[in-house]
Specification:
By secondary structure, the protein is α/β, with parallel strands linked by helices. The protein is 25% helix and 30% strand. It has a 9-stranded mixed beta sheet with strand order 1-2-3-5-4-6-7-8-9, sandwiched between helices. A 6-stranded antiparallel beta barrel has the order 10-11-12-13-14-15. Strand 11 and strand 12 form a beta hairpin.
Length: 405
């Protein structure tokens, strides 16, 4: 199984809802209030391995959407084999646009090996909750704060009802329930963690907080941002509109709770300012910042899942997890280079060297249609760097505009 971080794309959320009668799209929801009790159907076995037995169960979402497919929330449950329960457990949330749950199953497999159960929950309008005629996640982003409020709330209450389900099963230790999400899943995890104190531990992969900042800065929501501006929304108005579903509204109550945050230093999809806002929401979170953007984690996929597993195993046992100070991951760039006398070149590159100072000097080997080149310089702003460009038989002054993968 591979951790396909290239598909971990964040994307905010517009998972426009799910089912049974708690609220409609026009109704405000108190996210901290307990949900109405329901009876869960019996699960049935769906597979096994030498490490786990897999079960399937579904329940009606507590918020009703126009889509029948979206109104049922499927869970994939993994119970460790050959170990004695009740087991601590982790709710796992996938990334935006997921077409399968291979990444999440890989984490579930690692957790089961350590004696930890897991529950993979499908987010609204994804996978089996996708209406006919649409791609998984296609309905995820809508430039409408009212819909965003509703869909963020729906995703969060789906997690709350998943925790309700966990509390009904004797296989689980209800005093040790974690949550882990990637990208979009990390955003939903942060909100759910803030509103449900039954979740005792959290791990956020390429996630953040401050939804308005993400909508206003992310490189993947340009169209939605422009649509909001055309409707007269400013950054301040958008932030005010999203207060009720902003993770930072609720996370102060969890300030001392165990949290592990993994971010990309050069992420343009989940802005580093949003990752930092999530870090600052906790007193002493464990952090791991990668020298890459949103997609570069694919090169250390196994290590990231290993560290998330280490975090839950260590913290569930009452010990203090210590993250690695650094995980080596190549910094890959795609960009446009302009130099005198060389002219313009489009290329891909890898950072050979980066300074650790405030200026951030870098040395990048670029592969261009005219052959390999070396760029030595320092960033100016917004992906633009100034420096020296060296190629075959020529050296000159140049600019490099690039995005880190």
């Amino acid at each position: 199984m591979t951790l396909q971080f290239a598909r971990l794309g964040f994307l905010l959320v517009a998972l426009v809802s799910g089912s049974t009668g708690l609220a409609s799209a026009q109704t405000a929801v108190d996210l901290r209030a307990p949900l109405p009790k329901i009876s869960f159907e019996a699960w049935h076995e769906a597979g096994d391995s030498d490490r786990w037995t897999e079960y399937y169960v579904a329940f009606p979402s507590a918020m009703v959407s126009p889509s029948l497919e979206n109104n049922s929330v499927p869970l994939r449950v993994f119970i460790p084999r050959g170990k004695e329960g009740p087991f601590p457990s982790v709710v796992i949330l996938h990334y935006w646009g997921a077409k399968d749950i291979r990444v999440e199953r890989s984490l579930a497999d690692r957790l089961a090996e350590r004696g930890i159960a897991s529950i993979i929950m499908t987010l609204p309008y994804h996978l089996g909750r996708t209406p006919a005629g649409y791609r998984s996640g296609e309905l995820a982003i809508q430039p409408d704060p009212e819909k965003l409020r509703f869909t963020m709330a729906q995703a969060a209450v789906d997690v709350k009802r998943t925790v309700d389900f966990i509390e009904t099963r004797p296989e689980f230790d209800a005093s040790r329930i974690g949550i882990s999400g990637t990208s979009l899943g990390a955003l939903v995890s942060a909100l759910a963690y803030g509103v449900d104190s039954r979740l005792t531990h959290s791990a956020f992969i390429l996630g953040g907080a401050d939804l308005a900042e993400i909508l206003w800065s992310s490189s993947l929501v340009v169209d939605a941002r422009e649509a909001l501006r055309k409707r007269g929304f400013t950054f301040e108005r958008l932030r005010a509109e999203l207060t009720d579903v902003e993770p930072l509204t609720y996370l102060p109550a969890r300030k001392e709770s165990p949290a592990f945050i993994i971010g990309g230093k050069y992420d343009t999809i989940m802005p580093p300012a949003s990752t930092q806002a999530l870090i600052e929401a906790f007193d002493k979170p464990k952090t791991l910042l990668l020298d890459t953007g949103h997609y570069g984690g694919i090169f250390v996929q196994s290590r990231i899942l290993k560290e998330v597993t280490n975090f839950f195993e260590t913290e569930f046992s009452g010990k203090d997890y210590v993250p690695p100070t650094r995980v080596f991951v190549p910094t890959l760039r795609i960009g446009v280079q302009a130099s005198a006398p060389g002219g313009f070149d489009i290329g891909v590159g890898i950072d050979l060297w980066k300074s650790r100072g405030a200026v951030g000097f870098m040395g990048t080997a670029m592969l261009t249609p005219r052959g390999p080149q070396l760029f030595l310089g320092a960033p100016i702003s917004n992906g633009l760097s100034f420096g020296i460009v060296g190629g075959t038989n020529r050296i000159g002054i140049g600019l490099l505009w690039s995005r880190v993968l």
